[in-house]
Amino acid sequence: MKSINPSNLEVIQEFDEMSESQVDQIIDQVHHTWQSWKLTSFDHRAKLLIQLAAALRKNKDRYAKTITAEMGKVLSESEAEIEKCAVTCEYYAENGEKFLATEHISTEASVSRVAYEPLGIVLGIMPWNFPFWQAFRYIIPSMMAGNTCLLKHASNVSQCALDIEEVMLEAGFPVDSFRTLLIPGKKMDRVIENPKVAAVTLTGSTEAGRAVASKAGEQLKKTVLELGGSDPYVILEDADLDLAVSTCLKSRLINNGQSCIAAKRFIVVESIYEDFKRTFMEAMKQKTYGDPLSEVDLGPMASTALRDELHEQVLSSINEGAYCLLGGKIPKEKGAFYPPTILVNLHPGMPAFDEELFGPVASIISAKDEEEAIDLANQSCFGLGAAIFTRDVKRGEAIAQTKLQAGSCFVNELVHSDPRLPFGGIKDSGYGRELGSFGIKEFVNTKTVFVK
């Protein structure tokens, strides 16, 4: 298992793959630790989360540089990722006990209540694009609820995975309350089948989600899946054009364009289509790429394989009639770089409309009116996030709530996760919710207690 710097394609470090016996031993140890961890108080867990936030901030510079080295995002975004993890620790430290407070319900019983009890080991199978945040998004609420955790991270961010294990120990969490498994994805079935693993959460592709859901379903184990997205941003005729362009551009290019909830398809009512296209292209032309440790807007994609896959989607769309307005060519310099790219003249059936383009490629689509724009937005197998831009906020709110088919719908703002709000998708973007009061209840036993 190797970590390869996508900026220069040099091997950062090699890691030994764990044997089956090592994995079994770790699972046994994490399960044993759960037996005592589940009995700890909310106050104790909250104290450790506060210490975890402090440890993350203390080590932020080092962790951020590791993120940038292993997957290529610009350093400022890596630093922001660590800070978001710290903020979420503080949020659940403050609110976790309240979210899981016993609820008393009036019935004919002398006592009837609902209690929230931890399940056991929660296994997280996580991707490389937000190597700290994606992991902490399930670790923090799961640990606050009294579960213990295993992490199978993407192989190209193995040092990030070990850093997470390190910082958990530094914060004071018990040995073996959280462990990393250094094994390839093809060996995950055996881990899911282990009876001491109680539940599984995955962030990744739709194909990976189907495979994990199938295996976990065989074992009757709870799963939460946060999968791919092709988020549509609908720009109506009365939108604030400057706000729409700046917001859409930021969303499309965040994390080098490699985010499930990044804007992918910009669906613009035809009366302002030309103005939007011109303004968006002018702004996109100003974006620079290069060494993510320097003052640039974009670093490399996470690997040359992912870059080449994206380029094939661009070429296939062009072959089917799309027009490349900007970019669309693999740079000559060493590294997994891809330039900011704009495709127009798009319609359903093309990869740039139907598929998730995981990189800095914007698809701009014209719609004759609001109704067609919404129809095109919903014409997708995905349903993770969506956004609507209009000066009529009430109109936008109604469209977001009742017409756009996605787990998160934003008005005049880019789609993003927030520890205070539930996060997740519908359709091929998965099921279940992370974050907020909803996320912490995904991996607990919602138990009825009834006394005659």
Automatic annotation (TrEMBL):
Keyword Oxidoreductase on entry: yes
Domain of life: Bacteria
Family matches, as Pfam families: Aldedh
Residue span, Aldehyde dehydrogenase domain: 2-449
Keywords on record: NADP, Oxidoreductase
Listed InterPro entries: Ald_DH/histidinol_DH, Ald_DH_C, Ald_DH_CS_CYS, Ald_DH_N, Aldehyde_DH_dom, ALDH_GabD1-like, GABD/Sad-like
SUPFAM superfamilies: ALDH-like
Protein's UniProt keywords contain NADP: yes
Record family assignment: Belongs to the aldehyde dehydrogenase family.
Protein name per its UniProtKB record: NAD-dependent succinate-semialdehyde dehydrogenase
Species the sequence originates in: Reichenbachiella ulvae
